[in-house]
Amino acid sequence: MPAPNTKRALLADALASTLSQNAAGHLRRAGIRRVEEHSLPRETLRRDLLLAGLPVYDALLDLEERAGGAAFPGSRMLGASCFLHASRDLPRVDGDLLFPIFGNPDHREDWETPFTMLGPSGALYLFDAPRGPALAYASLELFLEVEALAPLTGQLHTLRVDGYCGELLAGLVDATPHAAASGETVIAFAGDGVWVKQVDIALDPLADDWSSHRGTFLLTERLEPLVLAATLLLEAGHALGHRGPVGHAPAGAEKILSFVDAHPELGHRAEVEVTFWRGPDGIAVSHRCGR
C-alpha cells in the first residue's frame, strides 16, 4: 500500500497531535495545505542551504519536514525552501542568523512586509524592516495557535484596543483563557464565536504607538459582540481601532457607534473614522480615511 502523500494533506491533519482543536479546526476550515512545489525533502534542503551559504539549523529542517510549503491567505507561505532566495542581509539575534519561515515570498528581497523568522533554538521572531527582529513565539506550535486563533477568512473583524486589557475584554464577550495560544508575548482567550488576544511583541521598544503586534484584540465574524464591546470600551475611555470587511452606510441606516482609529497602519499621521450602522439587514461598518 503506497504511503500517504503528506505534501497534499491538510496542515491541520499533519499536525493534529500537537495543535488544539481550536487551531486545527480553523486551519482545516480554511483548507490550509502544503504545496508540493514549495517544499523540499530534508536532505535536499540541507544541501541547498549549504550551497547558498545560509544557516543550517535542525529546527529549520524539522519545520520544513513537518509543515514546509503550507499556503496561507494573503499570499503567505510557511516553510524554508520557499525563502531560499531571500535577501542575504538576514537579521541576527545574539550573533545567530535568523531565517525567514513565514510571509509573502514575493517580498523577500527587500523585506517589504513583515516576516516571521526562525532561530537555531526553534524560537520564532518577528521582523518588520527596519524594526526588529523581536522574540514572538517559543515554538512553531505556539505560532500556529496564535495565527489560527480565529477563523482565517476575509469575513473576520478585528477590534483593537490601544492598551493591555485582555482579561477585561474577554470578560465583556464571555471568553475564557486559552492556554494553547498563550506564551511570553501573547495571552489568549476563546469563547462562542469570539476570540481575544493580548499581544506585546516589542519590534521597537521605544515606540509608543499601537499596531497589529501591540495591543489587545477582539476577533469575530459577528458584528453584534464587537459593537457591544466597543461601546463599553469607549465609555471606559479606551482608544480603539478596527480592521476587517467594510462597505458603505446602507440606505436608511442609523448610526449606532463611531470612533477614530489613530493607528490604522496606513502611513504617517493617518487616521480612519470607523462607523457602525444598523440597517434593515443588520449591522454594517464603514471607514473614512483622513489626514
Describe this structure in words.
This protein has helices spanning 11-14, 21-29, 42-51, 58-67, 140-147, 166-172, 223-235; strands at 70-72, 76-78, 92-93, 96-97, 99-103, 115-118, 124-128, 131-137, 157-161, 176-177, 186-190, 194-200, 214-220, 240-243, 254-261, 271-279, 282-290. It is α+β, with helices and mostly antiparallel strands and 291 residues long. It folds into two domains: 6-144; 150-290, TATA-Binding Protein, CATH 3.30.310. It has a six-stranded antiparallel β-sheet. It has a six-stranded antiparallel β-sheet with strand order 10-11-12-13-9-14, with helices on one face. A three-stranded antiparallel β-sheet has the order 15-16-17, covered by helices on one side. Mean pLDDT is 91; it is low at 1-7.
The first-level CATH class of the largest domain is given as Alpha Beta
Please trace the helix and strand order, writing H or E for each element. Answer: HHHHEEEEEEEEHEHEEEEHEEEE
Largest sheet entry: 6 strands, antiparallel
Q: Using the 3D structure, state the CATH architecture of the largest domain.
A: 2-Layer Sandwich
Q: Which topology of the largest domain does CATH recognise?
A: TATA-Binding Protein
Mean pLDDT: 91
How far apart the termini lie comes to 64 Å
Helix vs. strand class: alpha+beta
Unreliable stretches (pLDDT < 50, length at least 5) are 1-7
Number of helices: 7
Helix content: 10-25%
Number of strands: 17
How many domain regions?
Answer: 2
Strand order of the largest sheet: 1-2-5-6-7-8
Gyration radius over CA: 20 Å
What best-fitting shape do the alpha-carbon axes yield?
globular
Give the strand content: 25-35%
